[in-house]
Structures are given as C-alpha cells and as structure tokens.
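Components:
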Amino acid sequence: DGGITQSPKYLFRKEGQNVTLSCEQNLNHDAMYWYRQDPGQGLRLIYYSQIVNDFQKGDIAEGYSVSREKKESFPLTVTSAQKNPTAFYLCASSRGSGSTPGQYFGPGTRLTVT
Amino acid sequence: GQQLNQSPQSMFIQEGEDVSMNCTSSSIFNTWLWYKQDPGEGPVLLIALYKAGELTSNGRLTAQFGITRKDSFLNISASIPSDVGIYFCAAQNNAGNMLTFGGGTRLMVKP
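Structure:
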C-alpha cells in the first residue's frame, strides 16, 4: 500500500526539549511538506523540500528545522526555540513541479508540550 | 502567506440537507482542489479541478472551477452524518506544487 506515514500519532514532551517528528512516504514523490494546524485553524506551511538535499522555509519556520537526506523521508525537529509548539503537525508529499497537481497528506502527529 | 477566503466558517445542518461552500481569491489560479479532514486525521483529496468553468462530481459531491479562475464552490447533496469534518479549498499555479489554502469550513450534521 502506497502512502505517507507519520509517527507517533501522539507525542508528549517537556518544555525545553527538542523533539523530532517522523514522516515517510513510499509514493516516489519528489516534494515533501510540513504544516502546522492549531485548533479551529487552517494549515500553515513550516518547511518544504522539492528535491533531496534541498529545502526551503515556509511561512512559520522559526523554531523548526528539517533535513531531506533521502527521497522517502522528511523529518521535522521542533526545537526549544519554538514558543508555542503544542499543535497538530501534518506532513504531505507531491509529485515534482509540472506534474499532476495536489498534495497528499499523512495522518498527522499531535504534539503536546508541557 | 496568502490565504483563500473560504465561507462559511462553519455550518450546522440537518441530515438530508444540501450544503454549499465556496472559496474566493484576488489572484488567478490554474488548479482548484477540495479536501476533507476528519477529526484528528490528515486531509484527504476529494476533487481536483483543472479548467476554468469545469464542473466535476464525485458521488454526492459537486465542485466547480470559476470562470474567472478566482473562485470555486463545493456542493454536498443529501448530507449524512459521516460528512462531518472540515472541508478545505486549495489552489495552485503552474509554478511548482505549492498550495494556497482556505481557512476551512467546519460541517456538523445533526441526525
């Protein structure tokens, strides 16, 4: 079954700790994305990567970091510098630029920091 | 970043009623997409529209790409309880696969 997996589904951390959220896809998509969703809100873009070993900041990149060492994987690290890290985090992927439009989303990770 | 103007923000309807929601933008887009997000899950693509004026159906869902390329609407006919969720519009230009999202319409259906 092709798709996007995010793990874990729920994550709890103490304030001041860095935490890494996993995102893996076996769709052979070139591009991958991280979004943040707060209760009752839409999606805000954190980081995106159009190709391996390259990534760009989105609208709310401060306090986050990413890497793209493999095509299938795009982990997101929420650092202690992120002031309000508690949120629902969504990973998505898409074919390369110029291909069939649309992004496909994973099931999300709900991060709670206390 | 730029957001699409999606309305209404929320709707509470009776089972069996029809639903309509729309998205508008001040910019022109080449593709419009509609997603549904169930509570606690990731959004799932429902319908994609690629041509101005295009009308596309998927079961009880019908969506149209506005002729001006600045808007789109989604209709759901004969709503059922499992239609509950948040519906997002999204739009894209040819340059890359970046999406601009609407703020979402939260749909609640009373049995």
